[in-house]
Structure formats: C-alpha cells, structure tokens
Write a structure and sequence with these properties.
By secondary structure, this protein is an all-alpha fold. It is built from two helices and no strands.
C-alpha cells in the first residue's frame, strides 16, 4: 500500500496546481506514476497467489 502513496500525492498535486504546470515537474510526476503502477502490479500479483 505504501507504493500507492506517491501516485496519490502526485495526483493531488496535479489537480491542485494551476493550469500551467512547470515542465520541471513532469519527470517527477512520471516517476511517481511508475512507482504507483509497480505498486498496483505487486498488489495484483499478491492477490492472485493462494
């Protein structure tokens, strides 16, 4: 569940930020989305195992 927190924080940041998002934050947001995706995949893999 901890791996989902960066994605949630990034989503809140994007929704709360003004419409013109600084381009310096794009790699950070992409990295947090990747970490969140890995967390979701780990949770799915853990749920499939008996």
């Amino acid at each position: 569940m901890i791996l989902l927190l960066p994605g949630i924080c990034a989503l809140i940041f994007v929704v709360d930020s003004p419409s013109d998002l600084d381009s310096r934050f794009i790699p950070i947001l992409a990295l947090t989305a990747l970490v969140t995706f890995a967390g979701v995949m780990l949770i799915r893999a853990a749920r499939k195992r008996p």
